[in-house]
Design a protein that fits this description.
Length: 162
């Protein structure tokens, strides 16, 4: 396991543990396929990228499902998804994009939302397999630095006036 992956994974789990509700989860609070679909939609709405397929997003959801082996984490995810449906007064995933985003803004201070957002942040942007989609080549020191490797390749800036 690479150091970056280890740090990202442990950071997500540490935040999830701090954000967990202080109650015992019921045995019936398990993530279902409907929950998984809603989590996928939520992660895609928090970090929308048209150039990415579902695989990186599914990896984030898979990481959340793995963390849901802990009953408290499972309870937080299930109750958070139920709360999201309550905010939207029906199935949240069935709403249109604008309504879903406004519902997410309504719950953005909750431990549930923060846990999902941080998991998605590290899960997506810490994934070297999708860096090329963003034009990121990785750390510069491994490739000799930026001075002779694109330091002045700023095609998006206009040419300076002479």
């Amino acid at each position: 396991m690479k150091r970056r992956t280890f740090l990202a994974s442990t950071s997500v789990l540490a935040i999830a543990m701090m954000a967990r509700p202080r109650r015992l989860a019921l045995a019936s609070e398990r993530l279902t396929d409907a929950h998984t679909t809603t989590l996928l939609r939520m992660v895609k709405d928090i970090f929308p990228h048209d150039m990415l397929n579902d695989d990186p997003y599914l990896a984030v959801v898979s990481q959340l499902k793995g963390a849901a082996a802990d009953p408290d984490m499972s309870g937080m995810l299930v109750s958070g998804l139920a709360g999201l449906d309550a905010v939207s007064e029906g199935p949240w995933a069935d709403r249109d994009s604008g309504q879903r985003v406004s519902d997410l803004k309504a719950i953005e201070a909750t431990p549930f939302f923060i846990t999902v957002r941080v998991s998605a942040l590290f899960g997506l942007y810490g994934n070297p397999e999708i860096w090329p989609a963003f034009g990121y080549e990785g750390a510069s020191y491994e490739q000799g630095g930026y001075l002779f490797r694109g330091f002045d390749d700023l095609g998006w800036l206009p040419e300076p006036l002479s």
